[in-house]
Structures are given as C-alpha cells and as structure tokens.
Amino acid sequence: MANLKKSKTSVNVGVDVGKFFLDVYIYEKSIYFREENTPQGINKILKRMTYYQVKRITMEATGRYEFALAEACYLKGLPVIIAKPLTIRRYAGVIDQLAKTDKIDAKVIAQYAAVIQPRVTPQKSKNLIIIKDLLARRRQLIHMRTQELNRIKIMGKAFKTSCSRIIKAFNKEIIRAEKKLQASVDQQDEWRERQEILLSAPGVGNTLVYSILADLPEIGTLTNNEISKLVGVAPLNRDSGKMKGKRRILGGRANIRTTLYMATLSATLCNPVIRSFYTRLKANGKHSKVALTACMRKFITILNTMVRDNKHWNIN
Questions:
Q1: Cα–Cα distance measured from residue 266 to residue 295, given in angstroms and rounded to the nearest whole number
Q2: How many beta carbons lie within 10 A of that of residue 96, not counting itself?
Q3: Helices (DSSP H) in 200-270: which residue ranges?
Q4: Is 163:152 a contact under the CB 8 Å cutoff?
Q5: Is the Cβ–Cβ distance between 300 and 294 less than 8 Å?
Q6: pLDDT score for 1
Q7: Are 304 and 222 in contact (CB under 8 A)?
C-alpha cells in the first residue's frame, strides 16, 4: 500500500453498509475489499481513498449504520451520496443482476454511481440528525397513543383506566419530545429564521416546520417544479401511443408528504389562498383527493418561494 501513487483516474466507490462490515468496491479499478464498520475500519477505508481521485462515494440509507462512514467522508471533503435502497434494487433489476451478496451489492452501488451520476447528498449536522430522530420518536409516540385510544373503544370500560394511564404517559413524552425539538431548532439562527418564515403562513404548524428542516433541507434552493418532485406531489404523465393515462404523483419523500397532507387539510380551512384554490378546483368537478393533492403542490411551492426570497407570508 505504501508504494501506491495517487491515481489520476476519477473513481466511483460503492459501499455496501452492514452492521458489522463495510464492503467497498472501486468501480473503475475493479477493486473490492472489506473492513469492519468501526472507527478503525473506516479510517482504513479513508486511507485507501487518498490514493484515488474520488468522484463519488455512494452507500445505501440504512437508517443508522451508514452514519459514521458518511460523517467521516464529509470531514475529509469526499462527495457522499446516500441512496435509497429501492433505487439501487431497481437499478440492479435493470442490469439483470439477480444474485445478491455483499460484494455484488457493493459493485452494483458503485456502477449505479458511475452510470447514473446521482446528486451529492448535502451534509447534515448532528443537530439536524437529532431533529430527525426526535421527529421519528414523536411519530412513534403518537402512533402508540392512537392505538391506546382505539383500544378504549374496543375493550370497553373494563380497561379504560389502564389505557387512560398509558395515554397520559404518552402525552407527557410527546410534550417532552416537542420541547427538545424546539430547543434543537433554537440552537441555529438560520433554522429560527426559517421557522419564523414558514410559521407565518396560515396552516403551517411546528410539526410541518420540523419535518421540512429535517427531511427537506433543499427548500428555497430548488425551483418550484423540482421541490414538487422531491416531495412527490408533482403529477407525472402516463401516456403511451394513443392512450392518454391519468397523471399521478409518484415517489418523493414519504415523511414530508404525509405531514404536508395534514397541514394542507388545515390550510383549506384557514389559508385564504389554499382555500380559494381548493374551492375553485371542486367547483370545476375535481375529485376531493385530486384537488387536495393539487393544493399540496401549490402549498409547498408557496413555502419554497417564501424561503427562497426570505419573505414572510403576504396575501398580496
């Protein structure tokens, strides 16, 4: 290793991330190796990367196990892509790669990076990761509270006291999570400013703001069409030959889309622009769900413009 000179060739690196191991494949050099998913193993990987002109280092999103490697790569100034597992599997299907091993997966990821050339994933600060974790925990708590509320209706009076006691505990945990969320947002000026801008729009609450901060950091930097596609509320054509299919939304970031859906429901009642738009669509014969989806798209583009222009809500 010590005798190697830095390569002038740009390389795409694929990493199959596991709990215990990191399988690495350098596409242009057809080099494969494995290291442990530990600080020591990550350091060995980064040391080998210094011998190449790394164009992309791509890994799948596992929820947790890729964090340490991604953070170390960011610190070294390496361009990191954290890809959706479904995207990688679809690419594997396209190239007819049906077999699946750690080595094969690393190679497929590296090839995907070289051929598709996906956009680099922006670095997320530790504070932003905390916000994402707190949001996930809040969703879990709300889901469990809803289950207990449903059990009261099903089980009857015999279990009402028990269910109510657990619901009370969930309420306390939800409040605690929300306080921690706000404290994390308050730590950075740019987030506070963005929160103030977003909250000025009728129908926007802290839950949507926190989701945007954590799951949609690109807001304000993309065009309205791009932000709509990223959220998954842009209608896509389904035409072939003489057949004209219905336009449907597809893909996007599910967490932000779910939260946006609830916020848009509220906006159809309290936001004059969204309410007027929804009423007009319904009057033109649009189905409620279609009209609401169109309102979601309009709502997120308005918020995107507000953040981009650094302006609070103004009906005029």
A1: 11
A2: 6
A3: 206-215, 224-231, 254-270
A4: yes
A5: no
A6: 47
A7: yes
Q: How many helices (H) and strands (E) does the chain have?
A: 12, 7
Mean pLDDT of 25-52: 95
Q: Reply yes or no on whether the pLDDT at 154 is more than 60.
A: yes
Give the number of C-alpha atoms closer than 13 A to the C-alpha of residue 181, restricted to the C-beta side. Answer: 25
Strands (E), 109-238: none
Reduced to 3 states (helix: H, G, I; strand: E, B; else coil), residue 120 is: coil
Tokens of residue 173, six digits: 């945990």
Mean pLDDT of all residues in 52-78: 91
Q: Which of 259, 251, 233 is nearest to 138 (CA)?
A: 259
**Predicted pLDDT of residue 239:** 47
Tell me which DSSP letter residue 73 carries: H
CA distance 51 to 48: 6
Residue found under tokens 């469990």: 144
Instruction: Give Cβ neighbours of residue 288 (< 8 Å, ≥ 6 apart).
Output: 282
What region does 117 belong to: left with phi over 0, alpha with psi -120 to 50, or beta? left
On whether the CB atoms of residues 13 and 27 are closer than 8 A, the answer is yes
